[in-house]
Design goal:
By secondary structure, the protein is mainly β. It has two helices and 43 strands. Among the domains are: 41 residues, Laminin, CATH 2.10.25; 43 residues, Laminin (Ribbon), CATH 2.10.25.10. The longest helix is centred in the C-terminal third of the chain and has 30 residues. The protein is elongated.
Length: 442
Amino acid sequence: NSRKEYNYDISNAVLEADENLCGNHSTKTEFINGLKVCTCEDGYVPGINEVCTEMCNESKICENGGTCHNGICTCPPRTRGTFCEKIHVTCWNSYLYEEYAKVRGLYCCCKSDAPAKCKYDVKKLNAYCECPKKGEVYEDKSNTCKECNCGKPETWTKCDFYGGVKTCFCKENYVYNPKTQICEYCNCGELSKKCEYSWNGFVRCTCLKGAKQYKNECHKCDCGENIFCELRDGKPICSCPDNYQLNNGSCIECNCGKHGKCVYDDAGKKLKCECSTGYSENSMGICQYCYCGDNSICALNVDGTKNCSCPSGYRDVNGFCTDINECEEGIATCLSSEVCKNIPGGAFCACADGYRHTDNGCEDIDECAFEKPCRNKGTQCVNIPGSYECRCEAGYLARGGHKSDLECQKNSAANVGYGLLATLFTVTVIGLSIIVYMKYRR
């Protein structure tokens, strides 16, 4: 079977009125340049789809808040018809196939056997369910009246159930908190566009450009074009993307590769690459793998080959950089009050025991003045360079011990000698006194 196709040019055709393309109240139907043009009877004008529709006027007004313009009613939402006489209501419900109560021909959101009564709002052109008990709202999913509370009365305007889920309509500066399921205060400040609560109850601010959230408020955080800004303790911190470094409010390109970072030189003016351990900067300025062993310096030649050397304080021993002991080899010299200490790659002089560091060098510590180390009876402390000694006082002899443990006892032989001298002195004085007395008596 072959199919034949017929093409007709109706770009400028004139059809009889009984073709009914313009409705029952048309007198002529034309197609001009492919567009349908209807000529209507008196009292009718082309309306929707160019179908001849009865005109609105002073005697035939538009209903339900509709407006008449050029003989055609412009209908508000939820209304339709030539004069907006038909009201169309769609209820939020997943059980529309069941039987519902009707008010003025409208399907109400409550079922016919619901404990709530169906009401009709003339102003809002809507049908709704009203529960008998104050504070309760009809829930379509369970077909019951349930208590619906969104928090303190001053925080919300309406509480309802949609598809079994409680929905709160909050007042200005109040937002529904999914965690607490009530309206709570939420204001991120003048630099915010929106304030809301996350599912776990935290405040989430949508800030204006040049601002970021810190705690529960938007704070200014603007470092300029292409510069990252983050808030730390409420203060803006500026940073640049990868391979860029911040310099006087601008991001300067500095690409060291993924194994290095850009840093300023000691003068703080020029950028340079600081490579990770085992990497060195190549001729392109990128940190490239370069390893010569522990304690060694690896540098890359222009051709990419590596050049190994030992840093100061090390020497090459059989291909390995070995630490030089500057103390043992006499390279590092210290004063008599100091001791030499070797460290990897160098050495330093530290104050010897019994000395302390001052601005003028190492100073002897007078242990006798500060510590009072000689604690036994008959002992005395004598300071010596770098240390101290405990000695027996006059008239005492050492019995044993060392330093702070030194024990001293009185010298008995010395005591006898002292007694004889005292007796002789006394006898001499008495004898001289007698001689003088006898002389003056004569």
